[in-house]
Amino acid sequence: MKRLVLISLAAAALGACETVPTTYRPAPPGARDAVGYSEYRIEPGRYRITFRGGPGAPPEQVSDYALLRAADLALSEGYDWFRVSDRFMEGRPDNGPRVSFGFGGASIGRHTGVGVGVGTSSMSLGGGPAVSSTIEVLMGRGERPRGADTYDARGIRQSIGPRT
Known about the structure:
The structure is a single chain. The chain has helices at about 1-15, 60-75, 155-160, and strands at about 35-45, 45-50, 80-90, 100-110, 110-125, 130-140, 150. By secondary structure, it is an alpha+beta fold. The protein has one domain (about 1-164). β1 and β2 (about 45-50) form a beta hairpin. It is elongated, with a radius of gyration of 23 Å.
């Protein structure tokens, strides 16, 4: 019986740690909180792009994947560069449930004792914060204008693309 309880608790702890990995892919249609990118065409050459990371994804990775999607869209439509005209990062702090486990046992003479403890502060069951990056981009052809928020689409594809 003791083994069954211990095995059940261990399985529950491992199952709670399961998270959705953050990979560069389209978000499933209609899934509001799904990992991946989505875009909305505002007008020709202008898009609003959102990339949502999985729980615990670094904000830098999420931002990079939003830029990569902008580069891929620009290249697929025959544009050379894009300018980020607006951007914001949205996150959810790790307020999910937390749990910790403790096991112990002792044998003194003919008596044996086993203890199992459950606390509420060690291991997060939420997987960490989930963040999303939304950018609005304007695409163009020819020589790239100067500016900190203007990117060469091929350059972004070559620098960020291999990390996906």
